[in-house]
Design brief:
The structure is a single chain. The chain is α/β, with parallel strands linked by helices and about 600 residues long. It folds into three domains: about 55-350, Aldolase class I (TIM Barrel); about 355-440, Golgi alpha-mannosidase II (Immunoglobulin-like); about 455-585, Trefoil (Acidic Fibroblast Growth Factor, subunit A), CATH 2.80.10.50. It is about 20% helix and about 25% strand. It has 13 helices and 28 strands. The strands form seven sheets. It has an eight-stranded parallel β-sheet with strand order 7-6-5-4-3-2-1-8. Strands 9-10-11-16-13-14 form a six-stranded antiparallel β-sheet, covered by helices on one side. A four-stranded antiparallel β-sheet has the order 21-20-17-28, with no helix packed on it. β26 (about 560-565) and β27 (about 570-575) form a beta hairpin. It is globular, with a radius of gyration of 25 Å. The two termini are about 35 Å apart. About 50% of the residues are buried.
């Protein structure tokens, strides 16, 4: 859940001074200094989460219409349907499980009407069936629903230690911790999320010591992106703080957000935003592009079967947590088969933990490639258009050329074959072919240079930051990096020169990247200027930097186009070549 506020509602907001003051007090009590860097990740914080968590969450289908009877019946169906055997083990009770106030000792209480037996009893029920218990809370004073409906707040603000102890006592295995407020800066968020991380580690260790039993670590899932505010952590690397972190606003059961006016992001929208963040993911820490909408019907709308398979394919390629959210008593055989496809789940759960990279992203097709343990590769070919189309690529274009041939399997149809390079699929609108490739021998090279075409030039050191000309047509304007928006400001055409260099031209202005004043000095500005013929300060070479990344090197100086920082509005200058400051090229057409 996040922060949806329908029109007509005023947002009940925590004021920043109040939030800051309380955060300072709480952090001071806990020995955490506001403004300091987050502590190193607690060693006991569910570090055994080697692959993305899988489970089921109440929110997408039920919102606040939840009860212990619903959770128990759903848990039983997860087991009886085979979903548990397929890997869906966490049952997460989202918002609205709490009473309107804490008890006299400040302890959280379950809503007595919805969860009359209490949350520990519910956790025991889940554990008895081999499932794991997840719960929802907020680091501010109110949860989303409490804020939306101006109810008394029982968020964790000021109660972090008490709540962590309570969750450990109840046998909680998974905490979904949702900021759900527009107030607060990224720095405050880092401190507040770090505080609960450390309290969870302390509480689980203390509970284990007191009981004489082995420790039950709590998987820590955070969402810093309520209202998708630019002050929050939409692209921040939270891997030192949490096991998984939301990268976007809430998902909805639509292919694109432009299809209707309902709040939320579509499957393709989220893929386009989260895909470039893959370098942050790895065993124990995962980008979370939000829950699955497979089988979910909302407002009379649902994904088509092809869109559902694309949803699963793209989440598997991103090494995403898989949290289903459909009504289990209405689950169709097709929904079950999509959710439990073992070949697709094996890609998502691959032990190498290396998320896919986007190779091509256009209005016609989306291509991604993921390196898997043991030398295999998974490749997704998605028809992003609204008409049936054939999507074609090659192992060379994907950057995995080098083997004499490749055996492949289509993970949705089961079809198998062999190719020496070409990969192709005829697809319905919004459909995806997910292929697993096994090279016949060792890969000689994984470095395939971009060729002529239109690209987004994304920073390898700052996920989701791309070269942007600010929409300006002014010659001499210095270029910057900005959050990925897929707009014309961020579209660049590479045109090869006879000498093997490239000119880099803005798709919106027709102006070219240019080293100001033809300077060979370190720190010279990278600007846009009228394109010329054989101008050395507009010629660039692509120098391999490993992992399909390239330095963009100016011919006149031998220095590389480099951002001044890792965030939006970082100015581009030329600096010594460094693999840490390289770029990836996402083909747009």
């Amino acid at each position: 859940m996040s922060s949806y506020v329908p029109s007509g509602f005023a947002r009940s907001r925590v004021s920043l001074p109040t939030l800051t003051a309380v955060a300072a007090l709480v952090c001071s009590m806990a020995g955490v200094q506001i403004g300091a860097a987050p502590q190193a990740r607690a060693a006991t914080l569910a570090d055994e989460v080697a692959t993305p968590p899988m489970g089921w969450n109440t929110w997408n289908s039920f919102h606040c219409n939840i009860s212990e009877q619903l959770i128990k019946a759903s848990a039983d169906r997860i087991v009886s349907s085979g979903m548990k055997a397929a890997g869906y083990e966490y049952v997460v009770v989202d918002d609205c499980w709490m009473a309107n106030q804490r008890d006299a000792n400040g302890k959280l209480q379950a809503d007595p009407n919805r969860f009359g037996s209490g949350m520990k009893a519910l956790g025991d029920y889940l554990h008895a069936r081999g499932l794991k218990f997840g719960i929802y809370q907020s680091p501010t004073d109110k949860t989303c629903e409490q804020r939306l409906h101006n109810r008394p707040g029982t968020g964790s603000e000021g109660f972090e230690r008490k709540d962590a102890e309570t969750f450990a006592e109840w046998g909680v295995d998974y905490l979904k911790y949702d900021w759900c407020s527009k107030a607060g800066t990224l720095e405050i968020q880092k401190q507040r999320f770090s505080l609960m991380r450390d309290e969870l580690a302390r509480a689980t260790a203390a509970t284990a010591a007191a009981s004489g039993q082995s420790e039950r670590p709590i998987v820590y899932s955070i969402n810093a992106n309520s209202w998708f505010d630019e002050n929050t952590g939409s692209t921040f690397d939270w891997s030192s703080i949490a096991n998984l972190w939301r990268t976007t606003e809430d998902i909805k059961n639509a292919w694109l957000k432009t299809e209707d006016t309902r709040y939320g992001e579509g499957v393709l929208d989220i893929t386009r935003f989260s895909g470039p963040l893959g370098a942050q993911a790895g065993p124990g820490h995962w980008n979370d592009p939000d829950m699955l909408e497979v089988g979910v019907t909302k407002d009379g709308q649902s994904l088509t079967p092809d869109e559902s398979r694309s949803h699963m394919s793209l989440w598997a390629q991103m090494a995403a947590p898989l949290m289903a959210g459909h009504k289990l008593d209405e689950m169709t055989p097709e929904t079950l088969s999509i959710l439990t496809n073992q070949d697709v789940l094996a890609v998502d759960q691959d032990t190498l933990g290396r998320a896919a990279r986007i190779v091509t992203d256009s209005d016609a097709q989306l291509l991604t490639v993921r390196e898997l343990a043991g030398g295999d590769w998974s490749v997704s070919l998605t028809n992003t258009s609204d008409s049936a189309a054939t999507v074609t690529t090659s192992v060379s274009a994907l950057g995995i050329a080098g083997a004499p041939s490749y055996a492949f399997k289509n993970l949705w149809t089961g079809a198998v074959g062999t190719t020496s390079g070409t990969l192709s699929a005829t697809l319905a609108p919004h459909a995806t072919a997910l292929l697993r490739l096994t090279p016949s021998g060792p890969i000689a090279s994984t470095q395939a240079a971009p060729s002529n075409g239109t690209f987004e030039i994304a920073s390898a050191s700052a996920p989701a930051q791309t070269i942007d000309n600010s929409g300006s047509s002014v010659t001499g304007k210095q270029m910057i990096t900005w959050e990925r928006k897929r707009n014309d400001n961020q579209r660049w055409t590479l045109t090869g020169n006879p000498d093997g260099t490239f000119a880099v031209k803005s798709a919106i202005t027709g102006l070219c990247l240019d080293i100001k004043n033809n300077s060979s000095a370190t720190g010279a500005a990278v600007i846009q200027w009228t394109c010329g013929t054989n101008k050395s300060n507009q010629k660039f070479s692509l120098t391999p930097a490993g992992g399909n990344r390239y330095n963009l090197v100016a011919q006149n100086s031998g220095l590389a186009v480099t951002p001044s920082g890792t965030g939006s509005n970082s100015l581009l200058t030329q600096q010594p070549v460094s693999s840490a400051k390289a770029w990836t090229f996402i083909r747009l057409g």
